[in-house]
Structures are given as C-alpha cells and as structure tokens.
Amino acid sequence: MITVTNCGHDSRHKTKFCMLRKSGVPNYILLLVKTDAFFEFDGKLIPTAPNMAILFDRNTYTHYESAGDFYNDDWIHFDFIDEPLFLDALHIPFNQPIYLPHMNSLSNYVRLLVKECHSESFHQEQMKDCLMRLLLYNLDSLIISHPSGSKNDRYYPIINALRMNIHNTPHRNWTVDMMAESVHISPSYFQHLYKEFFHISCMQEVILARIERAKFYLSTTDIPVKVLSDLCGYESDLHFIRQFKKKEGLTPTQYRLLYKASK
C-alpha cells in the first residue's frame, strides 16, 4: 500500500520563499512545480521552468526557492508498505527535474488526495492509495510518451485536449481543416504535430474512435446497425460496415453475434 503522510494542492508562497532540508525527510517527496524557481543540484542553484515535476528520494538534501513574484506547487510526502520495489518498475528518476507538456491531470489527482486526506471516508486509506497509484502511473506515462524538451511542447496540451474530444464525440463531422482551425495552426503543421505526438494521423484517430464507440454499442445494445452507424458519425451504413470489417475482420453483425456467443 502507498501511504500519504501529507500533501498540498496549489500551494502559493510570496517572493523570497525558500525550502531547505539538509537531511531530507524519511519518505519520498513529489513536487509539481507551476512557476519559475531555483533548485539546488550538486551544490549549485539551477533555474527551473514551470510544468516541472521532481521526485526526491528518502533522506535527500533538498533546497529550492522562488524565482519570481511567487512560488506555486503541489506537493506530496508518501511511502510504501510492503511494496519497496514499486518505483523500480517506473521510469521516474530521483532528484532531477522532469519537464512535462502539461500537469493538469496530475494536479487534479493531488487535489483529490488533499480532499481525501481531510475527509472522514470509511475507505480513506484505500482511496489515497488508489489516487497515488493513478498519479504515479500517469506521470510515468507522460515521461514515456512525451520526452522532455521538445520544441513543440507548447502545442501538446491543446492538441491532446482535442484528441480527448475526438474520442468523447466521435460522431462529429471531424475534418483536418476544422481540427487545425480549432487549435489555430495550419492544417499541414497540425497533421505533422499530431503524428509526432501520438504516432497516428488525426483522421486515423477519428476512425479508431468511431470503431471503438461502435464496438461498445454492438456489445451493450440491440440498436440496429443502420441506426448505430449514424450514432458513430457515419453518413452511410455501407461505409460503416466496410470500415468496420477492414479494422476488425468482421462485419458489425458478425461482431455482435460473436460477442453474444462468447458471453
């Protein structure tokens, strides 16, 4: 189990804020830093930029300061019970800055952790454990999927939000031009960035989202295929059937029958 000793969300400190722990603390510290700051590494204060995460190991010298008008971060002190090797399976380095394309989802987990720490929930410890795992796995996924330092980092949050919108509303009439316009960049550059970020073209993403939505409807409803195709954004049920069979190797009707037989 992961235990959370203490945590804070969106903690703001005025200028000249300084944190110094010469001997560290006996648990891990995860910081999500949202402003410019200075962190000491190898005896030198190094400037760091916003959207930076850092995981301090137990009993590690820790020194960081504000760099602008104020300092803002999320912070968690945590440890493990009977899971000493949990962090070894992840790609989160100790005691060094990790620059991320965005931290909104990570910060939301911290917000929920803070709320849970001050609740009287019957399953409080289990809830904190689950939230902490989600946070660490999410951070690990960001590190793996988006190496730090890309010159296009500033576009990632808005294009990733668009990607989530595609999967949430696959029935919309998605086109390259309307997607590019929504993020205020040219269609050609948008397509280049989308492929760079997600290793799939934007229109292939639309097809994938529609097929996944269709599979959900086929396995959980008795909606006729012709109606279902419209719910998934297809103007023609014949186009839907051809595209579904190309991706899944079965027609929608065959997929539904096979699913019911397996149940």
Automatic annotation (TrEMBL):
Residues 160-258 form the HTH araC/xylS-type domain. It holds the Pfam family HTH_18. PROSITE patterns: HTH_ARAC_FAMILY_1, HTH_ARAC_FAMILY_2. The keyword Zinc-finger does not apply. GO terms for molecular function: DNA-binding transcription factor activity; sequence-specific DNA binding. InterPro entries: Homeodomain-like_sf, HTH-like, HTH_AraC, HTH_AraC-typ_CS. SUPFAM superfamilies: Homeodomain-like, Regulatory protein AraC. Keywords: DNA-binding, Transcription, Transcription regulation. It comes from the Bacteria. The keyword rRNA processing does not apply. This is HTH araC/xylS-type domain-containing protein.
